[in-house]
Amino acid sequence: MRKSEELANAQPLTPPAKIDRAKIDRAKLAELRFQVEEFYFEYAAVLDRCEIERWPAFFTEDGVYRLIARDNADANLPLSLMSCEGMGMLKDRAYAIAHTEMFAPRYIQHFISNIRVTAYDEPFITAEGNYLVLETLIDEPTRILQSGRYRDVLLMQGEALLIKERRCIYDTVLVPTCVVYPP
Amino acid sequence: MSNPTRFEEVAAFHPRGSIADLTWPADPAEIPDWVYTDQRVYDLELERIFLGPTWNYVALEAELPRPGDYIRSYIGAIPIVVTRDKAGEVHAFENRCAHRGVEFCKTYRGNAEQFICPYHQWTYDHSGALVSVPFRRGVKGKGGMPADFKPGEHNLRRLNVTRRHGVVFASVSDQMEPLEDYLGPEILDQFDTIFDGRELKILGVHRNTLPGNWKLYQENLKDPYHATLLHTYLTTFGLFVAGNKTAIMTDAKGRHSTLCNARPQGRPSDDESKTEIRSFHAAMQLADPRVIQLIPEKDTPWTSNAITIWPNLILLRQTNILGLRQIVPMGPHQFMLIWTTFGYADDTPEMEQHRLRQNNIFGPGGFLGIDDNEALKFVQDGLRRSVPRHGLAPLGKDEESEDTVITDRAIRSMYRHYRELMGL
After folding, report:
1. Predicted ipTM of the assembly
2. Number of domains forming the structure of chain B
């Protein structure tokens, strides 16, 4: 299997921050990672409570969200499982999940690890992390919904961070039934 | 007690005894539970339907643009490989080594000079013919294959292949009619509105498992009743509404169908047909309406068309989305869906972006895809967990005008053909 980071499709659309992690001061790197980690955990907490209508607020006005199957990324195919370009599409996706889609109620839990700041260039941070989403339906055992990787360009606004672009590249190519909530 | 419906004579519905004892209900509007749950029925389906007199969708030629390209695919539940040889011919053969039965191709797609089984390096060409066997003569005059071993008798099991406008179908049967006759004129006409001879461009592939019987997916796309009720995106934005101009056509044998719908300009008004639709959200507005915007591109009155081709293909053209769904049965209680999404090679970059944006509607993460996959899982949950009964497909009539929307006619006609093939 090819490595998706070598391929154009898996690269963020937004030019990544310029200063490579190797050149960032260690104390600064630790501070940035703490900031990113806090941000990822808050994002996960909101989704894990299924408060989907709060999800768009994690993005910039022109924020991009794409959920991409690993094999499409590897083959440089542009299709996404979910794709939002800008706040309008983010809100439409959130509204559909909250009000119009028909699906069984579910609990979800995100587990995010291996968080790395890969580059930094005030006010942008390029970061990545692995994620695992577990899903539990009524009277069914908990299952792995997705194992994947975030590839992000984040915008620093003072102490706060916002997602300028998030690509979730999932290895769980054979989706079990469907993905309702965006990872 | 106001509800007179009760659990009665449950035993009469159980598929006990031999498969020959299964009796179809007398009422043609009834479908017995055991067609979705019985392992013996499933095994017979693989034999009589998928390995029987059918053309099965296996690939798009755009997935195999260059000589040596291949993809993994399926005929019924059986893994196959579809290839393009150096002369440009397309072949399909079983993904299973003739020696020890290894499923040797373990990548979704690629390009290969030859196919080499990793276990003992038996090597096959692009047509699946065995070209070499290591140590065929043994070592130092000892061992090796028997002297009378004929490689030509140990090729991979091949399938007959036919193509139309870039779509590849395969069959085990040597007695198949041409694809055009198999589809029939009504379906062929709709097929050609999607595959009009222009070169296709693959945009991507999605896959999902669905814990349900494979036939439920065929039924779902032959069922305009659900389309007008379950899917808010269709009803609220007028993409498929009971009041729209509609035509439902089947082929002469009743096995294929097409559900054509013409979307009116703008969104549907709050008229009488909406009052029965709970999924109609009169107040709903999209913050970014590009996802449902129709860019006219086809010389047809229909803005959406759901085509089912027996036994394993769904073709869907909705607004500017072009896609197909391959059904791969995985036992009576599960199937896999492979969603291949495409545009045309001569699309402008804007049109390609538009199609990609619109694809938020379909797939196992789509506004409609989620509704359908969940609903079909709920059906199988009911089948699997309760005691048998007969399902109902009672709406409409078998003889009715094509523009009847609230009808199960195409589901009933599929089961008439199914019973004939299955001898049930």
Report:
1. 0.93
2. 2
